[in-house]
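Can't paste images in this forum, so I'm doing it all in text. The chain is below; anyone willing to post the predicted structure tokens underneath?
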Amino acid sequence: MRIVVENVEKRFVDSKKREVTALENINFSIEEEEFVVLVGPSGCGKSTLLNIVGGLLSPSGGEVYFEGWQDSKPPRLGIVFQEIALFPWRTVYQNIVFGLEEQGMSKAEMKEKGARYIEMVGLKGFESAYPKQLSGGMRQRAGIARALAIEPHLLLMDEPFSALDAQTRTLMQEELLSIWNRTRLSTLYVTHNIQEAVYLADRVIVLSRHPGQIKEIIRIDLPKIGRDQDKHREAFEAYSNQIWQLIRHDAQEALKEG
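Text version of the structure:
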């Protein structure tokens, strides 16, 4: 199954009653098992685009469709936001199986799947903990496990690690790659961190600032695991620099606007 984004536009009216074009002429696809990352300066419409792909926003023009999807039910989408909205009154286990409850899954199957994804994200032993008892990184793991538990056809992640400290963020990036290696989920990931994009992506889509348009799509031709090793450092830096040069002017303009 291939996810196709075709001629997508998004316009809205701002607080001064002016029509603003947030996204214009967006065309790309996400192949089966592909990890695609959106990067761009602040205000380029990355999150808006992710929300359109996830069906949380309607495009003003164009469409998003799942090519090759034959089922009468719509494809399942797992979404992880920057702010992990765990239910504070539910334990880690109860949060993770929430989507499965909504699907009407049996208790036995729910228990098996819950245990599998709890182990996958490294939260074994914390099944009965409540969100307030967890660190930021652990809450994020629980949010990822909840999105994975429904076994989505597409995983959408909107800056999921940006609120974490640098060390936890690095560990979570490694964890995410390890999880992706096991699940091979088609993924659309939003970040403003260029190194994170190069570390995770099969392809990086670079957006310009408003209206957000695709400046370039860059294929990261490095092994999926171990890109941070010394032997890949030169290529890694070259990709990072290529993306930065595409974004630099727009980022400076965004800074001036505050």
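The beta strands are 2-13, 19-30, 35-39, 61-67, 77-80, 154-158, 187-190, 203-207, 214-219. The radius of gyration is 19 Å.
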